[in-house]
Amino acid sequence: MPATDSQLDTESATRLVIRIKLTPQDPPQPAARPRFSRTAVLLTLGVVAVLLWLGIGILRLDPPSPPAVTERPSSKPATEPTAASSAATAARPLELEARQQPDAPPSSIDEVIPDVPQSALDTIRGTVRVSVRVGIDKQGRVVDTAAEDRGPSRYFERLSLEASKKWTFTPANSADRREMLVKFNFTRDGATAHASPLQ
Question: Cα dist. 131→77, 119, 168, 196, 198 in Å?
Fold first, then answer.
């Protein structure tokens, strides 16, 4: 028996059903950041440090010295009496100049700064100034000291006197006694000193 129209409609209707199964998709992954290992970072820093060191070393190099100039032999040979007499003549004015020149003011060679404990420096407000007059012998050694400006503290005065005895100055040509004024400054950061000629 042939199928009726209504039966055909129900069968075709059931055949037209499409089932779709949607699967959830994973959210998009962010782009992976490159990871640097600790070794790679340290290696890079080491290379940069070496390059900086080499660059500074190259900058510190002294400029090349100019080439040595050689003298040409003169066409006239010098005679021995003329050379000897000119050397003797040149030596005499140098000796006279050395005798006649007054000694320049001495400059310090070895400056000894007092070693002050930090606990003593912490008690300072502002700057403690102590001036010491030093007598210097011909060899540049300090032979005597006297406090010129004692400052507010006997402790810092004593440290200044002890340190100034250890200073040395440039030697002199004459045996005359020379004097300098050594000024010490004490602050919370430490001690400084400098010498100046007496007026």
Answer: 63, 23, 17, 10, 11
The helix (run of H) or strand (run of E) holding residue 33 is: none
Nearest in space to 112 (alpha carbons), one of 151, 169, 154: 169
Closest CA to 106 of 171, 164, 198: 171
Across 117-155, b (16+ Cβ under 10 Å) vs e yields: eeeebeebeeebebbbbbebbeebebeebebeebbebee
Q: Is 134 helix (H, G, I), strand (E, B) or coil?
A: strand
DSSP strand E in the chain: where? 108-110, 128-136, 142-149, 168-169, 178-187, 190-197
Tokens of 45: 């820093």
Of 3-12, 107-116, 165-174, 182-191, where does mean pLDDT reach its minimum?
Answer: 3-12
CA distances, 169 to each of 99, 112, 157, 166, 175 (Å)? 20, 12, 21, 10, 14
The pTM score is 0.48
**CA 161 – CA 96 distance, rounded (Å):** 39
Mean local confidence (pLDDT), 153-178: 90
